[in-house]
Design goal:
With about 575 residues, this protein is of the alpha/beta class. The chain is built from 24 helices and ten strands. Strand 1 and strand 2 form a beta hairpin.
């Protein structure tokens, strides 16, 4: 081997070469799977491998290993080899059954806490924290001694102690996936919590769930053996832990019998634990190579406070011909005792078939306002006051299914960043079908509607089976617009719909929005930081700064005769081409 090759190997070992780590993980996974497969086969074919009944005397006491008794006999003449192979059944069964129950409970708690949020989230995660505080081994001993020694009871006791760790780990991943743009977009389209969890969250966290199952099975096998060793196992069934218990209680160490009575079950137990550990490491690395650096078990979240309206105080009627009317809306974010007003007392109206432009610098509150319109402000944010009237109905009075029934049907979102808003694992047609299915139970009707809207936004039929990464930025933006209009909403909120696109594509997307407005009778709320760009298509402009509207009026008036210094600064930030003078 050359010196250069040796140096590369040393660097790879000490610098943590990613490919080397991946190969190591795969090798460990294969070794672990091989260990577990071998022991599982022994457990399955135990009746064929064992020549005697493991619970009945079959020879003289303390017989040395022989062809008939490969591990000899114990003090009452029972075949130790038969006990070893039959013991694999009990140890693996309780370990796997306990892991299934614990992982299922932990996954259910994680999904409920991560999707419902608010009070439910705080309550469930405090229970998880409480379960993690108790010393689990002591708790298992107490529960096993109190409830009994039956096999199913033992599995239930172990799972009741081990569910909290999978819940904590999976909960953090549910929160992370819930913040993905395509998940937020699905919620904005009106998808229910159950649909979002089934279509988007569960497929993402499934690999991590499998790794947690393997890790939990590892601990469960150890706990079952420990309980049996302490005499708390099922006395009618042979396991590796019970073999160690009887060997200890019958003084096997005083004779040579310990060599074949204690070492074999101890080695078998070690093989299972190491096999589960290796397999869990490989699956965990496969699920997310950065897992060790991303888990951030958070403290409890503040309970969301919702401003309430006094009984009998109904909003004033909406003006005829007005699709959206916002009155004195306020949104705040809290961190400890500190509060930041992202939206501070904003009000405006959007008549039918109009385009209202919301313009401001980053941090001015534009996106917070958009999420408030859709009822999607989540902790630590809260809508502290105001009214949002859509077609005469106050959206802030809606809760649960009623609120979801509005999103994607009467009000829709064109989110910022089409690539992150689309699920990379699904074709664009499938994602538009999912949006259309909110109002169409027949899959064929949803598929037909998806084809119609994709063609209406300029995507040819031969491209409907493409994945998001196979499309250009402008084409992806057309897809999210198609998803927004699939159910013919009366109001579309477009949050930075052309950010990151070249100027030609920006003009084409804006032209598409104008055509859809005229063809479908849409009302648009167009959010951007580019005042000149929005001013070309908007009927009315609202300029935001620090959560407030500092200037509002007809687009032409605001563009030609701005009254506020911030409006002038936004105009100066993107000068028209004709205003640029060549240097002399």
């Amino acid at each position: 081997m050359t010196a250069a090759a040796t140096l590369r190997r040393v660097k790879r070992a000490f610098a943590g070469d990613p490919s080397a780590g991946s190969r190591t993980g795969r090798r460990l996974g294969l070794i672990g799977a091989g260990m577990l497969l071998g022991i599982t086969l022994v457990a399955v074919f135990a009746p064929l491998l064992a020549g005697h009944d493991p619970t009945a005397p079959s020879g003289a006491p303390y017989r040395a290993p022989s062809f008939e008794f490969p591990l000899g006999t114990d003090d009452v003449g029972q075949d130790l080899f038969a006990q070893l192979v039959y013991g694999a059944r009990i140890s693996l069964t309780i370990g796997v059954l306990s892991a299934i129950l614990a992982t299922a409970i932990g996954l259910g708690v994680a999904l409920l806490a991560g999707s419902l949020r608010g009070r439910t989230e705080v309550l469930l995660m405090r229970v998880v924290d409480l379960a993690l505080v108790f010393p689990f081994f002591v708790l298992v001993i107490v529960l096993a001694a109190f409830l009994g020694r039956d096999l199913l009871i033992t599995a239930a006791v172990i799972s009741a102690v081990l569910w909290a760790k999978p819940a904590r780990v999976l909960y953090s991943d549910v929160l992370k996936v819930g913040e993905f743009q395509h998940v937020i977009a699905a919620r904005a389209m009106g998808a229910s919590n159950l649909r979002v969890l089934g279509r988007h969250v569960l497929p993402r966290i499934a690999p991590l769930g499998v790794s947690q199952f393997v890790r939990t099975a590892n601990v469960a096998v150890f706990l079952e053996s420990a309980l049996a060793f302490l005499g708390l196992g099922d006395p009618n069934r042979v396991s590796w832990g019970s073999m160690l218990f009887f060997a200890n209680s019958r003084s096997a160490f005083l004779t040579d019998a310990w060599l074949w009575w204690i070492l074999p079950p101890g080695l078998a137990l070690t093989l299972v634990l190491v096999g589960f550990a290796f397999l869990g490491y490989a699956i965990e690395e496969r699920a997310d190579p950065r897992l060790s650096g991303r888990r951030q078990p958070g403290a409890g979240r503040r309970v969301r406070r919702t401003a309430s309206r006094p009984a009998g105080d109904e909003p004033a009627p909406q003006a005829p011909g007005t699709v959206l009317e916002v009155r004195n809306l306020s949104v705040a974010y809290r961190s400890g005792d500190h509060e930041v007003r992202a939206v501070d007392g904003i009000g405006f109206t959007a008549p039918q078939r109009s385009i209202v432009g919301l313009v401001g610098e980053s941090g001015s509150g534009k996106s917070s306002l958009a999420f408030a319109l859709l009822g999607m402000v989540r902790p630590p944010g809260e809508v502290q006051g105001g009214e949002i009237l859509l077609n005469g109905r106050d959206l802030r009075s809606l809760r649960g299914p009623e609120a979801r029934g509005i999103r994607g049907r009467e009000i829709a979102l064109v989110p910022q960043g089409a690539m992150s808003s689309l699920n990379p694992a699904y074709t664009i047609r499938r994602q538009v079908v999912e949006s259309a299915a909110l109002t169409r139970e027949d899959p064929r009707a949803a598929g037909k509607r998806a084809r119609e809207v994709l063609e209406s936004v300029g995507i040819a039929p031969q491209r409907h089976g493409a994945y998001p990464h196979e499309l250009s930025g402008g084409m992806r933006q057309r897809v999210v617009i198609a998803m927004a209009i699939a159910n013919e909403p009366s109001l579309v909120v477009a949050d930075e719909p052309v950010t990151g696109l070249d100027v030609v594509t920006q003009a084409r997307i804006l032209q598409l929005l104008l055509e859809l407005r005229d063809r479908l009778g849409l009302t648009l709320v167009l959010i951007s930081h580019d005042l000149r760009l929005v001013g070309r298509v908007a009927d009315e402009l609202l300029v935001m700064q620090g959560g407030r509207v500092v200037e509002a009026g007809a687009a032409e008036t605001v563009m030609t005769s701005p009254c506020h210094p911030h409006t002038e600064a936004l105009l100066a930030a993107s000068p028209a081409l004709r205003e640029v003078e060549r240097p002399r």
